[in-house]
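Shape matters. Shown next:

___
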Amino acid sequence: MATASVNGITIGYDEIGEGSNVLLLVHGHPFNRSMWRPQLDAVRKAGWRVLTPDLRGYGETTVVPGKTPFDVFAADLAALLNHLDIGDVVIAGLSMGGQIVMEFARRYPHRVRGILLTATFPQSETDEGKRHRNAMADRLLREGMGAYAADVLPQMLAARSITTLPTVADHVSRMVRATDPEGAAAALRGRAERPEAFNTALIRFLTRLMPTRAAP
């Protein structure tokens, strides 16, 4: 593990591979950067330099209680790239990580060569969703991560996967249980207030990334 002191926090991250083609992987809630380990060797062998940071409040990155807006997550990622003297990247994210990727692309389009989005969506939170996120944050602060981990595992993995892939199920459960409840709660409160990702500026940017078809 390497660390970078940026934006008043210490970010824990892993880095493998070399070269100018950089892939930045952004984990989801309530996980940490270890969720990407099964993919790292294959991506490195394909010729990529890969960065996997822990987000603020997760894994081995500093926990800041309260609320973490998505622009703060995006700024942390940009600061990490500055620390490593990296100009632009292909950036990928899962779930909440995908929403942070969209916020990063909205704020730093000049630093994005491409994006990969998995199990995520661009819309801002509904009123019901805001209530749910904040209530869950309250629960994590009150109860910790243990019961929550048991509740969400069947939502993260199919029942058959839990039975036939016990190592995977154990890894997912351990990631959730290891997450600091204050960090997770701060992210949930920030996620409740996330902006609509598909604004005009982001649509123009995504259109620019799309390959142009030759005229028939």
About this structure: The first helix runs from residue 37 to 45. The two ends are 51 Å apart (CA to CA). Confidence is low (pLDDT under 50) at residues 212-216.
